[in-house]
DNA sequence: ACTTATTGGTTGCATGAGCAACGGTTTCTG
DNA sequence: CAGAAACCGTTGCTCATGCAACCAATAAGT
């Protein structure tokens, strides 16, 4: 399992160790947590990640437009659009045209949607707590502050602050 | 922009603040860094994330099977399979059947693949360095150790250690 | 040795997401 | 006030990806 240091030709030297590469580590960790979390909202409620983010945002803010949700959840507007359609079909949210600006639609959770939110949010928080329970409270704070600092910086490296899921 | 605390019915209370939710934060940060990094290997070399991981792994280990790469890069085997096909077509890697076990194929970079690796890896490292330059060296170490601790723990919460990109 | 289970890798299928173009509205500008 | 520009949201297209079924090869069990 070790490295064959001398191949036929000059062995190319190891420039980068993937497991130590920060973007890789971040992706792995994000994937792990996303997947674990998805087991909650996908298996139990049939929600996709975007759908879950829509619900979480509406649970947090009561009423928002699709665009607000996209910005807030760092999702593409088409992603949000489809998630919203699907949630509406399932009767979890309602859309109401904004009479002041008829381009946009105000979205809100239905009672059924709220019920899901109220059931899901505590489970999500419990998961989070369980996840970070390996860290000391002090470490938890530190982690969050480091992540935020990095995120702010990373945002400035990309052209914009848009993105995907 | 604040919360309308008293809606028609009982306003549902905010249970979860998305921006403070760790899995969300991790996803945002991972997306930001992935996208920024992808600008390097996608725009300049036309590589996808899986392709880049294959190259990085082969650059690191010289010779591996597809399965090794999948495990190592936390990718699905079908993802790796397709990435490998595409890289082979482009002449960046070669496959050689393992005579000892003819189910598997040994993969290695071609000179062209190595050239890309040798050009790309330093750029990736430079990007990483630039990214973490907002953190003090001490903070960088801390971040990595926290991430690793969390990753190990998260892995134990999922059924397996497989995943996606 | 023969059957059965396991493993490495590929591929068809369905889903999901980004992109870009579009329709309908509002705002900005002259 | 008319035309251009910006903006919200939708949709067709394409591509990436996870899943599951599958083929070929090896290992395990009897």
UniProtKB/TrEMBL annotation, chains A, B:
Keyword Phosphoprotein annotated: no
Protein name as annotated: Winged helix-turn-helix transcriptional regulator
The keyword Nucleotide-binding appears for this protein: no
Protein's organism: Microvirga alba
GO molecular function, a single term: DNA binding
UniProt entry keywords in alphabetical sequence: DNA-binding, Transcription, Transcription regulation
Pfam families in the cross-refs: MarR_2
Domain called HTH marR-type: residue spans: 8-152
Superkingdom of the organism of origin: Bacteria
């Amino acid at each position: 399992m070790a490295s064959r240091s001398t191949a036929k030709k000059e062995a190319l030297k190891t420039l980068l160790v993937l497991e130590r590469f920060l973007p890789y580590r971040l992706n792995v960790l994000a994937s792990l947590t996303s997947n674990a979390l998805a087991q909650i909202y996908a298996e139990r409620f049939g929600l996709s990640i975007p759908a879950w983010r829509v619900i979480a945002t509406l649970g947090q803010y009561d009423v928002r437009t699709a665009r607000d949700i996209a910005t807030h959840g760092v999702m593409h507007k088409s992603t949000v659009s489809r998630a919203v359609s699907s949630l509406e079909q399932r009767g979890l949210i309602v859309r109401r045209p904004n009479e002041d600006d008829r381009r946009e639609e105000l979205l809100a959770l239905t009672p059924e949607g709220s019920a899901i939110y109220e059931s899901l949010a505590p489970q999500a928080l419990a998961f989070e707590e369980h996840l970070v329970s390996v860290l000391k409270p002090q470490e938890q704070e530190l982690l969050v502050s480091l992540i935020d600092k990095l995120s702010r910086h990373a945002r400035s490296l990309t052209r914009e602050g848009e993105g995907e899921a």
